[in-house]
Amino acid sequence: MSKIEIFDPAMCCPTGVCGPSVDPELTRVATAIFSLEKLGIDIKRYNLANEPDPFIQNTEVNKLLNEKGPDVLPIVIVNGVVTKVDDYPTNEELAAWAEVDVKELTPQKPKTALNIKLN
Fold first, then answer.
1. pTM of the predicted model over 0.70
2. Which is the most buried residue in 3, 20, 58, 105, by most CB within 10 A?
């Protein structure tokens, strides 16, 4: 099983899914990570603003930040290897790294409709 780490740029909260204007890409990534966590996949996400220690302790991340600055974020590390920089992984990439079907990362719509009558 793979270990996936995502090093996010500084955001107002751990997922970036807050505030008056939410980036749909951050919502997609947060949903995919939540789905992978539910499946027991070893996936971690670090926010530069709230958790600077992992950025300092990981030599590859630290080196990239010193060479290219914070614009290199997000950085994705899979099994200790820098796999993607300056962009979030697609659901297909996450599924491949985690060895799961990509359908596991897509929220399922309810199959039955609710009939609610309001008086």
1. yes
2. 105
